Amino acid sequence: MTDNAAMPNPSALLEDLVAANRILAMEGVLDAYGHVSARNPQDPTRFFMSRSLAPEQVTAGDIQEYGHDSEPIGDTRKPYLERFIHGEIYRTRPDVMAIVHSHADSSIPFGISRTPLKPVYHMASFLWSGAPVFDIRRERDDNDLLIRDRALGEALARSLGRCQCVLMRGHGMTVVGENIPEVVFRAVYTEKNAQLQMQAMRLDGPLTYLSDEEGRRATESNRPTIERPWALWKARALRGQ
Asked: Where residue 241 falls among pLDDT bands split at 50, 70, 90?
């Protein structure tokens, strides 16, 4: 039997989801486009995400609950077209509790070139697991680059595999985490790592990346500290509300 007392407070989860939207807009990871979701901890076949809206404008009243088919439950407001990114990753990765899809500028070059995105510093150590590139043309020649149905969502989830980030050719990136603070942390530092890697590539090489062992160890060291940037970002993003 489920211990309801151990379940996260639903209103607190929605508050964090609103904060995540605002933080990612504030940090330049999301603009008018992109979205962040959280799995429903009381029913893992469902997830929460805003209706189709610019992330900076999201409030608790804009959050919709989505079912196993990635369709809003009892809500006729317009959803994000690419909601299938979230639904199909949740379906294939039970460890994932939150997802960010972004068109962040600095990630784009790594999805359209032969240069892989790798961790260059400890804040992005989670990238040690890899950042595979999903090329939608391998799935569907006739496409508009958008993940607009479950079949494409399934293909993206396969590309992600057991990694924490998947790049999308000519589109952006999708990052996963075990909770909302962690996925926000990863989305922010994936973008920062991409910026730093491109800066370093202009200097004399070869570049020295984190080893897999360094990546694993740094990721575990960072985990207990994520509450620190999360508290700071959340206070800034929700100031005045």
From this structure: low
